[in-house]
Amino acid sequence: MNKNILLCGVGGQGIVLTSKLTASCAMKKGMQIMSAETIGMAQKGGSVFSFLRIGKNIYCPMFGKKQADIIIAFEPAEAVRMLPYLREGGTIIVNTRPIMPVTAALKASSYNGTEMLDYLKKYTDNIITVDGDKVCRELGSPKVLNMIMLSEAIKSGILPFTIDDAVEAMKHNVKQQFIELNEKALRHNF
Amino acid sequence: MHKEFLMGNAAISRGAVAAGLNVISGYPGTPSTEVLETTAKINNGSIYVEWSVNEKAALELGAGAAYCGARSMVTMKQVGLNVASDPLMSLAYIGVKGGMVIMVADDPGPISSQTEQDTRHFAAFSKLPCFDPSSVQEAYDMIQEAFEYSEEYHTPVLFRPTTRVCHGYASIDVKDESEYIKNIPEGFVKDSSKWVIFPRLSYNAHLNIEKRNSELSDIFSEYKRNMIIPPSDTSCHKGIASHGISFTYVQEAFTDKDAPKILKISTPFPFPEKLAVEFLNGLDEVLCIEELDPVIERELTYVCGKYHLSTKIIGKLTGNVKNAGENTCDSVADNIAEFMEWDKKINSDIPTTPELPVRPPVLCAGCPHRASFYAVKQAMKGKKSVFCGDIGCYTLGNAMPLDMVDTCLCMGAGVNITQGIGKIEPDTSCFAFVGDSTFFASAITGVVNAVYNQADMTLIVLDNSTTAMTGHQPHPGTGRTMMGQIVDKVNIEAVLRGIGLKTVETVNPLELDKAIDTVKRISAEKGVKSIIFKSPCAVLIKSQKPFVIDSNKCINCKKCINSLGCPGIIISDSNVRIDESLCTGCGLCSQVCPVNAIGGEQNE
Ligand code: SF4
Ligand code: SF4
After folding, report:
1. What's the CATH code, domain A3-187?
2. Residue A30 predicted with pLDDT over 90
3. Dihedral angle of Cα B391, B397, B403, B407, to the nearest 10 degrees
């Protein structure tokens, strides 16, 4: 079965690694994959995304609007920005902590994410909110948000692989000293 | 053969290595950079890999190697080819012995470039064959074929993927190492009638090139990657012509619908004319879906005229497809829906979103460029001055609140733009900002020009010991090469003194007061003088302990935010705070705060 997955957030949140792990899990299962992600200047604090497509008869790495089976959003406003890509009945997983851009600080804007979350709740049927900050604190590191988000996505049952697959893939993609922490984060709600 | 999940650029590198690559050179530039980097990573020592000082040097090196029978590849982004165009144009006449592929990545959008130029035009202009892959798998396969054509026809060839192919990932079939070609270069064989360009030689070469290209047009009509996909609905007299990643968008659009006849062009030059005639045969109307310029559209229009065909060709030239920016699945689907006269998709309107925060890219927290720009800004406060920027991370110094980049054109241009402004506005203090890598790539001759022609200007070299923007490549000032050697650093201060600058001072911009004083003092001098702001890129060094704002001392004046725009300083619950996950401990803000509320370790 084909799956269109969209990861989004802000440069520096670890989206690229999450996308890589998702891809290698699917690879392991012998599935065909294509993906595309933001590379370059925008990575410096800009909006970043990663499109992933798993399955047969896929021609290009990026899909069009209303085609994502799942959006994994690391930041509420980025979730809203990418919402047009969600297909009807698709699922959105969103981290609740907003990241304020420098421009907002300059203008002393009041952006705090609640408005975004309200919007998402109002216009989507399947929304899973994640207090990534809280889980990070429990695990004792701010650097595992990406594992937490992946974990939630697997728990939703939409990704075509298990948490064990993800742990296995993670072991091949992160430095030795971070494996234990990442494994804990991946398994935190299993 | 086995499967691997690869980025397009990695696939290009792997394909070239499988084709017996001996030498690869290039200059970093998004979206081309990873081709050379991958090659350096997988190199078993048999391939010579270098980041050259600029694209011109890279291309000349690749030519020299190919003269010896080596298989060489040169990598750059599209605007890099402008720099390398001088050797390119002549090399087209001289030709090569070993296969030589010039990999030029185009950037529709543009996503990270100054222009939306289309390298397919450069192919026609230089009369060199051009390959245009549409997917990661095709890029892998096609680069190998490009080497074969190059060697068979003794000519360099262009290979031009676009961003979405370069940076797309796919699980693709790749060769096992046992299947790789091994190319052993014969060596340079002297023959001045062959390797020395003279008008007489060029005349004959020109004749041969034209002959070869018309032959190649026929051969490319048979090339399997140029193809006609027959219509699934044979009663349809419409056709679609496409190329590159856009071709895959066209395929996507027809996954659940009857498709008309489709033409895919993989060699835009020489254009496969016979294939085009066969395609146009029986068609009333053809839509061209292209990115960048309407190259195929013009070719098809020409073919129609030449063969008296009545097919109507539409696309960018007729206003049916937008003529700037990149295509997407959605934009192509819309173009096709209109062309095929499909019922309009009912756009169940997405309700208006709350105002989304804009996130322009900014200099990293702890970036030394922020300090350099701020120092110059403070020093020149109230004086009439102009700040000419250049290409690199430091272009981001244009953003508020720094607002310190008045011009930016192309690599190295700032130096002489500054000179030009100074000639017309002698009462303005003129500054040119240039990064270390850009300095080596193309600013040195500009400085010589300014010195010789008696300019009054201050050259600010932002030396962070890397090529940061494209992902931290080494350059002549870093003392490292892509072959892993540690070499003598080319010293920027010595270069400037050698050119004849009397005043050259090196300062750490993070020592703010000293930096400001230096700028005040030196900018007041006559002639060309230089300040080298030296401090390593924040991404490359280990962060120091984050700074903390003492909420008892902070008077909430927001000077730190409004003067520096560092992403590490945030407002939470109306308090100014430092985000410790971002702060690198550079300490710049602590030197800006009027009440000393920001402190390092001593604050705890
Ligand atoms: S990568 Fe380095 S040079 Fe570029 S903005 Fe970040 S700190 Fe500055
Ligand atoms: S500059 Fe100092 S006093 Fe003003 S907001 Fe920043 S930390 Fe507070």
Report:
1. 3.40.920.10
2. no
3. -10
Q: How far apart are CA B335 and CA B474, in angstroms?
A: 44
Q: Which residues contact B598 (CB under 8 A, 6 or more apart)?
A: B547, B548, B549, B550, B560, B578, B589, B590
pLDDT tens for each residue of B560-577 = 999 999 999 988 878 899
Q: Are residues B397 and B330 in the same domain?
A: no
ipTM of the complex, rounded to two decimals: 0.92
Q: Is residue B498 domain-shared with residue B420, that is, in the same domain? A: yes
Maximum CA pair distance of chain B?
84
Cβ neighbours for B562, distance < 8 A, ≥ 6 positions apart: A106, B401
Residue B223 · residue B266 · CB < 8 Å: yes
Name every chain A residue with its beta carbon within 8 A of the beta carbon of B170. Answer: 33-35, 61
**Residue A160 pLDDT > 50, yes or no?**
yes
Which residues 123-162 of A are in CB contact (within 8 Å) with B?
123, 142
Partners of B136 on chain A (C-beta within 8 Å) are: 34
Residue B572 CB partners (closer than 8 Å, separation 6+): none
Q: Is B473 contained in some domain?
A: yes
Q: In this structure, what DSSP letter does residue A46 have?
A: S
Quick one: which of B108, B115, B110 has its CA closest to B132? B108
Percentage of chain B modeled with pLDDT above 90: 91
pLDDT digits (tens, 9 = 90+) for B481-498: 999 999 999 999 999 999
Q: How far apart are the first and last CA of chain B?
A: 60
Domain count, chain B: 4
Output the DSSP codes for B415-444. Answer: HHHHHHHHHH-TTSEEEEEEEHHHIIIIIH
Q: Does B197 share its domain with B105?
A: yes
Say yes or no to pLDDT of A42 above 70.
no
The mean per-residue pLDDT over the stretch A110-118 comes to 86
Is residue B604 over pLDDT 60? no
Residue to mutate (ligand 2; options B547, B548, B549, B596; most atoms within 8 A of CB): B549
What is the per-residue pLDDT across B376-393, written as a single tens digit (0 to 9) for each? 999 999 999 999 999 999
Q: What's chain A's average pLDDT?
A: 90
Average pLDDT over residues A9-32: 90
Instruction: Answer yes or no: is pLDDT of B367 > 80.
Output: yes
What dihedral do alpha carbons B589, B594, B599, B603 form, nearest 10°?
Answer: -160
H/E segment holding residue A180: helix A179-186
What pTM did the predictor assign? Answer: 0.94
Chains A and B form CB pairs within 8 A to the count of 139
Structure tokens of A8? 């989004």
B401: preceding bond cis by omega (within 30 degrees): yes
Segment B415-425, tens digit of pLDDT: 999 999 999 99
Chain B interface disruption, residue of A4, A5, A8, A39, most B CBs within 10 A: A39
Assess whether pLDDT exceeds 80 at residue A108.
no
Helix, strand, or coil (residue B388): strand
Alpha helices (H) in A89-162, listed in sequence order: 102-106, 114-123, 132-139, 145-155
One domain, residues B24 and B172: yes
Give the end of a domain, one of B340, B358, B378: B340
Q: For residue B603, what pLDDT is reported?
A: 46
Tell me if B566 CB under 6 Å of ligand 2.
no
Q: Domain containing B555 — which CATH number?
A: 3.30.70.20
Domain that holds residue B86: 2-219
Identify the H or E element spanning B457: strand B457-463
CB within 8 Å of chain B, chain A residues 48-77: 57, 59-65, 77
Q: What percent of chain A has pLDDT over 70?
A: 95
Which residue's CA is the closest to the ligand 2 atom numbered 5? B558
Omega of the bond leading into B426 within 30 degrees of 0 (cis): no
Domain locations in chain A?
A: 3-187
